[in-house]
Structure prediction request, 617 residues.
Amino acid sequence: MSASTGNPAAPRKGRLDIWELLIRLVLIIASLACLLPFLHVVSKSLSSDSFVIANKVFLWPEGITIEAYKKIFADASILRSLYISVIVTVLFTILGMVLTICAAYPLSRTQFKGRRVITFIFLFTMYFSGGIIPDYMNINNLGLMDTIWSMVLPLSFSAFNLLIMKTSLTSSIPVSLEESARIDGAGHFRILLSIVLPLSKPIMATLALFYAVGRWNAYQDALFYIKHETDLRPLQLKLYYLVIQASESFQLEATQVSLSNPEVLKASVVVFATLPILCVYPFVQKYFVQGVMLGAVKE
Amino acid sequence: MKVASASKTNQTALLSKKEGIGYYLQRDWQLYLLVLFPLAFVIVFKYLPMTGLVIAFKDYKIARGFWGSEWVGFQIFQEIFSKPDFARAVRNTLLLNILDLCFSFTMPIVLAILLNEVKSVRFKRVNQTLLYLPHFLSWVIIGAIGYQLLSEGSGVVNNLIELMGGNRIPFLQEDTNWLISYLAIGVWQSMGWGTIIYLAAMSGINPEMYEAATVDGAGRWRKVWNITVPSIRATIVTLLIMNLGKVMEGSFERIFALQNKATTEFTTTIPVLVYRWGIESGNFSRATALGLFQSVIGIILVITADRVAKKLGEDGIL
Prediction:
């Protein structure tokens, strides 16, 4: 936040000297490098086959058509993947937030005995884990393979997010406020629900976003745990099989001859899968920057 | 003794009457109840899997089960150390991650310094927004965009090269090219995002230092070198230590999204090998041992880097 406004290095107002121009040029090139790949994929997804096959599409769609998008929306399996992704992300975010709050609030209270030990138990998981195979066996033993819960439960505790939440609660909730509530006879549940949570809306929004975007983008666990139930594949995994491995064909491929170039269709699927993030990106970016800076605050 | 220490910590007369765990459980039972849920969760999903690590020391047979399988000591480790795939995976993991550290770690520092030097706030904001964007995309999408851009047959980069009279380059279909593309894509994905922490550190620099330097006749680069860089040194060291710990790890998702059958030379890394041995071939003991080897080396690296940083007078992370 302050990173984007405060600028102590530069003099107040100055003319554009050669260095300033050079710096801006480098930054513009870097920014364009981040933007142009999308523009190209979007253009390709909106172009007609013949222009793409002739390698004529660069940053502007040629022979504009939404044929490919029509096909995606007619493909039940892609829509189902989107649906699975949404459900998993929502459940995961809710669970992650509940876990974080339930752990962070007690650990942020100084009168809570044993908090050092319990904090250690939580934070140790940040540095050491069983690894891929023990996790896999655990999910298998718990009977979660090929269920939606294999994508919701295992990752929903984040020691990193807990640390951020704990730091925030310790510093932002004045002890006096809590004390006066206690004198009025409020228990911890009451204090948490009526004082702490309403005061922590910004940090909760930030962490919820961390959980949601992290879940939305992950596909490793789905790759491991969703083996046979193709109906449960989240969007990212569907995309992996469809575009990268190219091991799956579009369901309607045979019936629609008009769209023969898989490149256009692949580009459309990429755009389709990116859209949700692109829609929320301008709104969430600010919160993420705040969250990263909070995470950088050391204990 | 006990009473004395208890009355020291609890100052009110009411509290000093009782002490011990029972008292606190009774007083703060709501807090303990709250923490019980995440605690149980962590035990089931984080600590319970750790017990599975013992199969690295057992000859695990699914039919015999976890307890029925035979103890074999370090035999599994000896077995994996002698595999040619193991040596290759270790080499690749180190190679990819160290190269990645060289480029993906330094780029954000450079960009942050440049962004900090820009005078126009508007220009800076627009650039930051664009630079952060790739970080919000999954590796699958980045991999897919990578293939759209870089593939030999239809990639736009090759179309441009051809248009300018060059030959098409198999960016992702040949080993060395793949390695370069892999690194470039990594820089692309992380360069903007990595600037946030450095910019935050820079915003804490006292403006008077710059003013004093200006009075002393320091030019722009002199100020960057003598004020900005030293001010973010602690941040750089902290992040470096954290990244050094990951040198044996690397992102499975990233490699998996970018690998293909034509480029096996550099794509066999430890996480990929763990996946192949364990989940694809079902050799759980071998894959677990490899994963454990990786974690242990990772922890040793973090601790060592942290010690070295402290010796050099930095804060460290542990």
About this structure: Confidence is low (pLDDT under 50) at residues 1-16 of chain B.
